[in-house]
Amino acid sequence: MDSQKESNQKWKYDAFLSFRGEDTRNNFVSHLYKRLEERGFNVFKDDEKLERGRPISAELLNAIEESRIAIIVFSENYASSKWCLEELTKIMDCVEKKGQEAIPIFHDVDPSDLRRQSNSVAVALAKHEVDLKGSDLGKVQRWKDALCKAANIAGWDVGKAANR
């Protein structure tokens, strides 16, 4: 990462956790969050750090921008969440424009499924295209691009995907 960009940036959080709650909130993510906090990292996790009374979307987008690192926990159903895909798009934008670092974790999903948009990722994206028919189909292409960029970053495979 460009050290000049990093030194000029004021980060509110050390890390932002992006994850599909139904898949990983009460298992992998809760353990990861606890370990990071125990080691002194200031981590934004949506159910821990949200300010009550503020719109969730604005709060999450601000937290992404204010985080030095984004940890993206890709799971089998990550791409089924429009909000996860919006977070991912914002994260990849911050990586490109603000010098933020992104660390992907592939939890029970193969990184190549994200790159190629195959298997559960393909099903989710096809559903989003149907849901957005007649509105912003460019959004789906931005999501596809963000998935591909993130999957091309060296990360960690955990769960079933790591045992292949």
TrEMBL record:
Q: Which top-rank group of organisms is this from?
A: Eukaryota
Check the record and name the InterPro entries matching this protein: TIR_dom (IPR000157), Toll_tir_struct_dom_sf (IPR035897)
Pfam families with a match to the protein in the record: TIR (PF01582)
Keywords attached to this Swiss-Prot or TrEMBL record, sorted alphabetically, are:
NAD
| Keyword NAD (UniProt) | yes
Where the record annotates domain TIR, the positions are 11-164
The answer, when asked if NAD is one of the entry's keywords, is yes
- State the PANTHER family in the record: TMV RESISTANCE PROTEIN N-LIKE, TOLL-INTERLEUKIN-RESISTANCE (TIR) DOMAIN FAMILY PROTEIN
The name of this protein is TIR domain-containing protein
| Organism this protein belongs to | Solanum tuberosum
